[in-house]
Amino acid sequence: TLPAIPSTKKNMVSTASKI
Description:
The protein is mostly helical. It is built from one helix and no strands. The chain is rod-shaped.
């Protein structure tokens, strides 16, 4: 779960930046 939390956060940031 620990690695999953930062992974999701990074994904969200990447998506927002892409948009």
